[in-house]
Design goal:
Layout: E1 9-12, E2 21-26, E3 32-36, H1 49-52, E4 68-69, E5 72-73, H2 76-94, E6 99-103, H3 109-123, E7 128-130, H4 137-147, H5 157-161, E8 164-168, H6 172-175, H7 177-189, E9 194-198, E10 211-213, H8 220-233, H9 239-245, E11 246-247, H10 249-257, H11 261-268, H12 272-284, E12 288-292, H13 294-297, H14 302-315, E13 325-328, H15 335-341, H16 357-367, H17 380-388, E14 394-398, H18 402-405, H19 409-418, E15 421-426, E16 439-442, E17 451-454, E18 459-463, H20 476-486, H21 498-510, H22 529-533, E19 538-539, E20 580-581, E21 599-604, H23 620-625, E22 630-633, H24 635-640, E23 648-652, E24 657-664, E25 672-676, E26 709-715, E27 720-726, E28 737-743, E29 746-753, H25 759-767, E30 774-780, E31 785-792, E32 795-803, H26 811-819, H27 825-833, E33 846-848, E34 853-854, H28 855-863, H29 869-876, H30 886-901
Parallel strand pairs: 6-7, 6-14, 8-9, 8-12, 9-10, 11-20, 12-13, 14-15, 15-16, 21-25, 22-24
Antiparallel strand pairs: 1-2, 2-3, 4-5, 4-16, 17-18, 18-19, 21-26, 22-25, 23-24, 23-26, 27-29, 27-32, 28-29, 30-31, 31-32, 33-34
The chain binds ligand MGD (2 copies), iron/sulfur cluster (SF4) and molybdenum atom.
Cofactor: [4Fe-4S] cluster; Mo-bis(molybdopterin guanine dinucleotide)
Pfam family, one: Fer2_BFD
Protein name: Nitrate reductase
Length: 902
C-alpha cells in the first residue's frame, strides 16, 4: 500500500471490542501521534488510556523481524515451505485431524477468513479454534439457543437511550471505557437513568451504579431466574410478544418459579431487600439494556447465564427496541469478525452451521473445496489436550499467547513443548509461547497492515496501515495464503490483497442467503481496491440491494440505511419456526472450595494493561497505574491468613501457584481472591495466573470457567524486600519474587527474597559495576537496610533499596530520578537515602496515566478544596484527557470526604 505520511490515517483501535476510530499521523521525523476519530460512530473522538497511549507501543523493541526455524534466521521461502510440507506430510500420514490451528480475535477478518477456509475447506478438518473460546463462546451458544443465530440485536445508541442499564459481570469502566463514558455522559444529561452492577467485587464501575449487587460467584442464573419469576408474579410480562414470537415460556417460568425469594437470596448471597430493589426496578423500566461480559461467559454455567438473561428480555418484549435489549459486549477488537468468518471449531463460515449438510454443501460449492469438515473440531481446552496426548502433531498458533491465557497453563505449555511441530506467527520475538516454536513467523503489527474488524455493535471498520512493515514482517493473511498455495491449493488461495478476501467473505455471506441468515454483507461482494480503501464504518446486515427480504413480511430488521438496525423487535428469529426459544435453565451452585482450598479464585483485568502485556507493557505511562501483579484480598481473609497489606502472598491451587503482592481492600468480596490475568514470565517471576486455573468448561459452549476456582492463600515469608529503578532491563533476576515494569527512563523492579544474600554482590548483579561508574552504598546490617545507587557521571544507572519489610521508598519519586541530572553530590546522596530531596514531590501511585498525576497529588488538591472531578481536572489536568481515571479520582475525593466527616 501507498503510505502518505503527511495525512492523518483513519484506522481502528486494536484493543477492545468497543472498536473506537483512531486518527494516526506520522510526522516527518517518524514520530507517530494518535487521537480519537471525531467522526467514528463508536467513540465520536473519545479514546481511553490504552487508546491514547497507542503511539508508545509501536516501537520495534523486541519485534520478530525475520522468519526463524529452530532459532535460525531463514528467508520466507524456506520457512513457508517447511510449514507447508510438514503440515501436508502430517495430514498424509495421520489424517487431517492430526493438525490444528489456534487463532485469535485479534486477527483481522481477512486473516481469519483465509485461515478458516484453509482448515475447514481444504485440509478438511475443523480443528481450528480461537482464543474467543475463552471469551465469547458462551454468548455465542446462548444466542444460538435463543435466537437460532449468533445475533447481537442492539446498538451502542441503546446504552444512551435506556432508562436502566444492568451490568452483569462487566467491569465496563476499565474494560470498555468508552462505552462506560458514553453511559456516564448520558446519565449526566438524564439523571433519572439508573445503573445496576452485578459483580462479586466493588469495581471502579460501581462509580456509576445506583445499586451494586455483590453477587456470590456464579449466582447469576439464580438471580435472573428469580427475576423471571418476579416479572410473572408482578404482571410485568409482554404477553403479546411471548405468544406471537416465542416458544417455551411456560417451562422456563415453571422452572424459575420453583425458587422462592429466600432460595434466591441463599444462592446469590444477596439480601431479599437487594433482590426486590433490583427486580422492581427492572419490572418497572421498559427501556432496559442488560450488558454482560466475562463474569457471565467465563463460567461453567456461562451459557445458562446468557439464556437466563435473554429469557427476561424475551418475557418483557425488550429486545431490538430503542434503549432495550440484551447486549453481550465483546472483548477483542475482532471477536465479532471471527464469529462472522466461522473461526470457531463448531461453526462453518458466514454464520452457517457445520452440522447442517445443506450449509456444508453450500460453503463447499462456494469455495470449490475438495473437502469440507464434516463435524465440529476440537475446542481450545480439548485441542490442547489432544496436543498433549499426541493426537495433534502439528500446531499453528497465530496472534495469541496460550502459554499465558489458557487454563491449566503449565499443562498447555508442556503440551506445546512436547508437540513435534509448532509454528507461531507473532509480532514479538519472545513471548511465553513464541519461546517454544519450531518455526517463528514475523507478523505485521497494527499500523502496518490493512483489513477490517467488527465491533460489539456489528459495525465493520477498516484498520489501515500508516507505517511500512519492518524487516521481513508480513500480514497474517499473506502468510496463511502462501502456506495454502504451497500445500497445493493454488487457485483457491490466489488472493493478492485483503480487498479480495473481504470481497469473497462478503460474497459468501450473501450467497444463497435471501434473508435466511442474519449475517449478510452481500452489498460489499464487489468491493474494489478503491472502495475498500475508502470504506466507511458500517453495520451489518448490509445485503446486496437486489436481495429479497426475508421473511416476506420482512421486519426481522428494517432495511433503513438512514437509521440504526436492530433485530427481533417484531420477532422473526432465525429458528425453523421463526420464534425465539426460552430456555428452562437450572441454577447450578458449584462448590469448588474445600478445607484445603478454601477461597474462590476470580481472575480478570486492570485498566491500563491488555492481556499478556505484549503491547501495554511497552508503555511507561500504562505501566505506572498498576506496576505489579497482585491478589485482591478482603480484610477479613487477610486477617484470617495473617497477611498484611503489601506482603507477598502465595496463591495456589491443585494446578499451580503464583507469588503476588497483597492488596487488602474491602472492595473485595469476603472469601474471594482476585488476580489479574496480565503478568507473564516476561514481567514477573511467577505470576501466570492461568497456571492456577482449572480446565473446567461450560458443557455447552466449551468456555473455561476462569472466574471461579478454588485456591489457598499463604503469606510468603520474605527475609528481604527490595525495590529498584534501572536504566537498562537486567539480563536476569535472581530472586524468588520479582516484577518488572517500564518507566519513563528505564525499568522499575519489585523484589522479595526468602533468604538473605551477600547484598553487595546482589546489587552488582542487578546494577552492574565498571571502572567508569561510582556506586554509593548505605548499610544498616542490624536493621536489615541496604541501599545502593550507581552513577555514571551525573546519570543514575540504577538504585536498589532492600529492607526486611516492604520498601517504603516513594516509587514515583525514584522513577523520576532515572532521567534526572545528578551533578550535585548532595542529590546523589539523597537517592541512597531513598527520600525525596528538599523540593521533591512524592506523587504517590499514578492514577491519571495521561498526565502522570499521583494519588497523593489528588488527595492534596482535595485537602486544598477541590470537591469534584472537574475541580481536580482544572487544577491538575488529571482526568481531562481520556477520562479513564475519573472513577478513581472520584473514589479518592469520596474517601477524603469520609475521613473529614469522621
Ligand atoms: N483494560 C483492559 N480492557 C480490556 C481487556 C484488557 O485486557 N484490559 N481485554 C478485553 C477483552 S478480550 C475482554 S473479554 C473484556 C473483558 O471485560 P470484562 O468482562 O468487563 O472484564 P473481566 O475483568 O475479565 O471480568 C469482569 C468482572 O466479572 C466479575 N465476575 C467474576 N465472577 C463473576 C460472577 O460469577 N458473576 C458476575 N456477575 N460477575 C463475576 C469479576 O469480578 C470482574 O470484575 O475486556 C476487554 N477490554
Ligand atoms: N485466567 C484468565 N484467563 C483468561 C482470561 C481471564 O479473564 N482470566 N480471559 C481470556 C480472554 S477473554 C482472552 S480474549 C484471552 C486473551 O489472551 P491472548 O490472546 O493469549 O493474549 P494476548 O496478549 O492478546 O496475545 C496476543 C498475541 O498476539 C500477538 N500479536 C499482536 N498483534 C498481532 C498480529 O497482528 N498478528 C499476529 N500474528 N500476532 C499478533 C501479540 O504479540 C501476543 O503475543 O485470555 C483469556 N484468558
Ligand atoms: S475503549 Fe479504549 S481500548 Fe477500547 S477501542 Fe476504545 S480506545 Fe481502544
Ligand atoms: Mo476476551
Amino acid at each position: 500500500m501507498q503510505i502518505d505520511e503527511a495525512r492523518e490515517v483513519r484506522t481502528t483501535c486494536p484493543y477492545c471490542g468497543v472498536g473506537c476510530g483512531v486518527l494516526a499521523k506520522v510526522a516527518a521525523d517518524g514520530q507517530v501521534t494518535v487521537r480519537g476519530d471525531p467522526d467514528h460512530p463508536a467513540n465520536f473522538g473519545r479514546l481511553c488510556s490504552k487508546g491514547s497511549a497507542l503511539a508508545e507501543t509501536i516501537d520495534l523493541d523486541g519485534r520478530l523481524l525475520h522468519p526463524e526455524i529452530h532459532g535460525r534466521q531463514t528467508g520466507w521461502d524456506e520457512a513457508l515451505d517447511r510449514v507447508a510440507s510438514t503440515f501436508s506430510q502430517t495430514i498424509a500420514e495421520h489424517g487431517p485431524d492430526a493438525v490444528a490451528f489456534y487463532v485469535s480475535g485479534q486477527l483481522l477478518t481477512e486473516d481469519y477468513y483465509v485461515a478458516n477456509k484453509l482448515m475447514k475447506g481444504f485440509i478438511g478438518s475443523a480443528n481450528i479454534d480461537t482464543n474467543s473460546r475463552l471469551c465469547m463462546a458462551s454468548s455465542v451458544a446462548g444466542h444460538r439457543r435463543a435466537f437460532g443465530s449468533d445475533t447481537v440485536p442492539g446498538n451502542y445508541e441503546d446504552l444512551e437511550l435506556a432508562d436502566l442499564i444492568v451490568l452483569v459481570g462487566s467491569n465496563l469502566a476499565w474494560c470498555h471505557p468508552v462505552l462506560y463514558q458514553r453511559i456516564a455522559a448520558a446519565r449526566e444529561k438524564r439523571p433519572e437513568m439508573k445503573v445496576v452492577l452485578v459483580d462479586p467485587r466493588r469495581t471502579m464501575t460501581s462509580d456509576i451504579a445506583d445499586l451494586h449487587l455483590a453477587i456470590a460467584p456464579d449466582g447469576d442464573v439464580a438471580l435472573f431466574m428469580g427475576l423471571l419469576a418476579y416479572l410473572g408474579q408482578h404482571n410485568a410480562l409482554d404477553r403479546a410478544y411471548i405468544t406471537a414470537h416465542t416458544t417455551g415460556f411456560g417451562q422456563a417460568l415453571f422452572a424459575a418459579s420453583k425458587l422462592d425469594l429466600a432460595g434466591i437470596a441463599a444462592a446469590t448471597g444477596l439480601s431479599e431487600d437487594e433482590l426486590v430493589r433490583f427486580y422492581s426496578l427492572f419490572a418497572a423500566t421498559a427501556k432496559t439494556v442488560t450488558v454482560y461480559s466475562q463474569g457471565v461467559n467465563q463460567s461453567s454455567s456461562g451459557t445458562d447465564k446468557v439464556n437466563a438473561i435473554i429469557n427476561c428480555h424475551l418475557a418483557t418484549g425488550r429486545i431490538g427496541k430503542p434503549g432495550a435489549g440484551p447486549f453481550s459486549v465483546t472483548g477483542q477488537p475482532n471477536a465479532m469478525g471471527g464469529r462472522e468468518v466461522g473461526g470457531m471449531a463448531n461453526m462453518l463460515a458466514a454464520h452457517m452451521e457445520i452440522e447442517n449438510p445443506e450449509h456444508r454443501d453450500r460453503v463447499q460449492r462456494f469455495w470449490k473445496a475438495p473437502d469440507i469438515a464434516e463435524k465440529p473440531g476440537l475446542k481450545a481446552v480439548d485441542m490442547f489436550k489432544a496436543v498433549a496426548d499426541g493426537r495433534i502433531k502439528a500446531l499453528w498458533i497465530m496472534a495469541t499467547n496460550p502459554v499465558d491465557s489458557m487454563p491449566d497453563a503449565d499443562a498447555v505449555e508442556a503440551a506445546i513443548k512436547a508437540c513435534p511441530f509448532v509454528v507461531v506467527s507473532d509480532v514479538l520475538a519472545s513471548t511465553d509461547t513464541v519461546r517454544h516454536a519450531h518455526v517463528r513467523l514475523p507478523a505485521a503489527a497494527w499500523g502496518e497492515k490493512d483489513g477490517t474488524v467488527t465491533n460489539s455493535e456489528r459495525r465493520i471498520s477498516r484498520q489501515r496501515a500508516f507505517m511500512a512493515m519492518p524487516g521481513e514482517a508480513r500480514p497474517d493473511w499473506w502468510i496463511v495464503a502462501e502456506v495454502a498455495r504451497r500445500m497445493g491449493f493454488t487457485e483457491a488461495f490466489s488472493h493478492v490483497s485483503p480487498t479480495e478476501l473481504f470481497a469473497e467473505h462478503a460474497a459468501l455471506s450473501g450467497f444463497e442467503n435471501d434473508g435466511a441468515r442474519d449475517f449478510d454483507i452481500g452489498a460489499y461482494a464487489a468491493v474494489d481496491a478503491q472502495a475498500y480503501d475508502a470504506l466507511e464504518p458500517f453495520q451489518w446486515p448490509a445485503p446486496s440491494p437486489g436481495a429479497p427480504l426475508w421473511p416476506p413480511e420482512g421486519d426481522a430488521w428494517a432495511r433503513r440505511p438512514e437509521g440504526p438496525v436492530r433485530f427481533f423487535a417484531n420477532g422473526n428469529f432465525y429458528t425453523p419456526d421463526g420464534k425465539a426459544r426460552f430456555i428452562a435453565v437450572r441454577p447450578t451452585v458449584e462448590t469448588r472450595t474445600s478445607p484445603d482450598y478454601p477461597l474462590i479464585l476470580n481472575t480478570g483485568r486492570v485498566r491500563d494493561h491488555w492481556h499478556t502485556m505484549t503491547r501495554t507493557g511497552k508503555s511507561s505511562r500504562l505501566s505506572q497505574h498498576i506496576a505489579e501483579p497482585f491478589a485482591e484480598i478482603h480484610p477479613a481473609d487477610a486477617q484470617r491468613f495473617g497477611i498484611g497489606d503489601a506482603d507477598i502472598v502465595r496463591v495456589s491451587t491443585v494446578h499451580g501457584e503464583a507469588l503476588l503482592r497483597a492488596l487488602v481492600t474491602a472492595r473485595q468480596r469476603p472469601g474471594s481472591v482476585f488476580v489479574p490475568m496480565h503478568w507473564t514470565d516476561q514481567f514477573a517471576a511467577r505470576a501466570r495466573v492461568d497456571a492456577l486455573v482449572a480446565p473446567i468448561t461450560d458443557a455447552i459452549s466449551g468456555q473455561p470457567a476462569s472466574k471461579n476456582g478454588a485456591a489457598r492463600l499463604e503469606r510468603f515469608a520474605a527475609a528481604a524486600f527490595g525495590f529498584a529503578v534501572l536504566a537498562e532491563r537486567p539480563a536476569s533476576i535472581d530472586a524468588d519474587y520479582w516484577s518488572l515494569a517500564r518507566c519513563a527512563a528505564g525499568w522499575r523492579l519489585e523484589l522479595a527474597l526468602q533468604a538473605g544474600r551477600d547484598w553487595t554482590a546482589f546489587a552488582a548483579s542487578l546494577l552492574g559495576a565498571d571502572a567508569q561508574s561510582e556506586t554509593l552504598a548505605y548499610h544498616d546490617a542490624a536493621g536489615g537496610h541496604y541501599r545502593f545507587a550507581r552513577f555514571t557521571g551525573s546519570r543514575l544507572v540504577g538504585a536498589l533499596y532492600l529492607a526486611p519489610v516492604p520498601v517504603a521508598v516513594s516509587r514515583s519519586w525514584a522513577v523520576e530520578q532515572l532521567g534526572a541530572d545528578h551533578a550535585d553530590r548532595r542529590g546523589r546522596l539523597a537517592i541512597v537515602a531513598g527520600r525525596p530531596g528538599g523540593n521533591g514531590v512524592n506523587r504517590g501511585a499514578i492514577v491519571c496515566s495521561c498526565f502522570g498525576t499521583g494519588a497523593n497529588q489528588i488527595a492534596e488538591a482535595v485537602r486544598g478544596g477541590c470537591a469534584s472531578v472537574a475541580a481536580i481536572g482544572a487544577v491538575l489536568g488529571a482526568g481531562t484527557n481520556c477520562g479513564s481515571c475519573r472513577a478513581e479520582i472520584r473514589t479518592i475525593i469520596d474517601a477524603r470526604r469520609l475521613q473529614a466527616a469522621e
